[in-house]
Amino acid sequence: MTTIISPQQFSPVEDAENIKKACQGWGTDEKAIISILGHRNLFQRKLVRLAFQEIYHQDLLQQLKCELSGNLERAISLWTLDPADRDAVLANETLQKSDPDYRVIIEIACIRSPEDLLAVKRAYKFRYKHSLEEDLASSTTADIRKLLVGVTSAYRYDGDEFDETVAQSEASTLHQEIHGKAFNNEEVIRILSTRSQAQLNATFNIYKDIYGHSITKGFPGGDYFSTLRTVIRCIRDPKKYFAKVLRSAINMEETNEDALSRVIVTRAEKDLKDIKELYLKRNNISVDEAVAREWSGDYKTFILALLGADQN
Asked: For residues 289 and 268, what is the distance between their CA atoms, to the nearest angstrom?
């Protein structure tokens, strides 16, 4: 969604020099940094980072961490990272918390493509010297562990084809094991962690046709079912899921900058336009207006730049 400078106007060396200039003197010129990095695509940001390293023998990310702070520093740093490395950082950060937000892990495992998920796991291992699955298993217990390690370990088929007979059979299995008397998490986890998105959506649709309601309706309480619900929502309709995360981040009594930054930064070069349209339809206010209303300062300026709502 961010407004990108045209290749004809783009100079990574000039950008690197202007960022360095913004970091010199008595105070950091945050607006100058935002005006550059907030309007560069993934390929351009890579070139700027390379140019900065070549000219100043410094990592641009380390320079930004020294010069910026708070929500702005976090958002710009995430934006500057390569997507796989960014997801690895997000996953590790949430697993280090005393109360991890498993939505972060589920988004990476269930919404990223199989190749993207594989790249994240490679980046995680390179950065932290152990596997994402290992850290995830150490941070979770019981059925939540089985479910999250299962979906994170998956390498799913990524095509549109599905088997309707399998979908009908597994819709029945899911109903029996989630809502029936004979409850067994193993089959639920097997289905959700091995089937493709197309196959699972066929199963969810047949489930609704047979039983008259969505699979998540009437879920019992508890952490496991909350986690299971998030897995299903991410697989079933990622854009709708992200629109809800944004609404929650913006409308909570205490706004959630971590969730806002995560969604905007990770979806800005993917499907943010569709998520914004869905948000507007469901909330009668645009994401841009909601952000402008709830936040201020340089953080707001940067988020609005990624939303394509600034005037630069």
From this structure: 17
Q: For the chain, which residues make up each domain, given as ranges?
A: 12-68, 83-153, 164-236, 238-307
d(CA 19, CA 56): 11
The answer to whether the beta carbons of residues 127 and 143 sit under 8 Å apart is: no
Provide the annotated binding site for Ca(2+): 25, 27, 67, 250, 292, 294
Q: Which two tokens stand for residue 291?
A: 């952000």
Q: What's the one-letter identity of residue 69?
A: S
**pLDDT digits 0-9 by tens, 31-63:** 999 999 999 999 999 999 999 999 999 999 999
Residue 248 · residue 257 · CB < 8 Å: no
* Topology adopted by domain 164-236: Annexin V; domain 1 (1.10.220)
- DSSP string over 138-152: HH--HHHHHHHHHHH
* Angle ∠(89,296,291) on CA atoms, nearest 5: 70
Tell me if domain 83-153 and domain 164-236 are identical in fold.
yes
> What are the tens digits of pLDDT across the range 152-187?
999 999 999 999 999 999 999 999 888 775 556 889
**Fold exhibited by the domain 238-307:** Annexin V; domain 1 (1.10.220)
Q: Would you call 213 exposed, middle or buried from its count of C-beta atoms within 10 A (0-12, 13-18, 19+)?
A: exposed
Query: Which pair of structure tokens corresponds to residue 296?
Result: 């201020």
Angle at 296 between CA 40 and CA 285, to 5 degrees: 85
pTM: 0.93
Q: Which CATH superfamily is domain 12-68 in?
A: Annexin (1.10.220.10)
Topology (CATH) of 83-153: Annexin V; domain 1 (1.10.220)
Distance CA 113, CA 59 (A): 29
What would the two tokens of residue 16 be? 């690197």
Q: Please answer whether residues 240 and 279 qualify as being in contact, where contact means their C-beta atoms are separated by less than 8 angstroms.
A: no
HSE-CB at 104 with a 13 A cutoff on CA atoms is 23
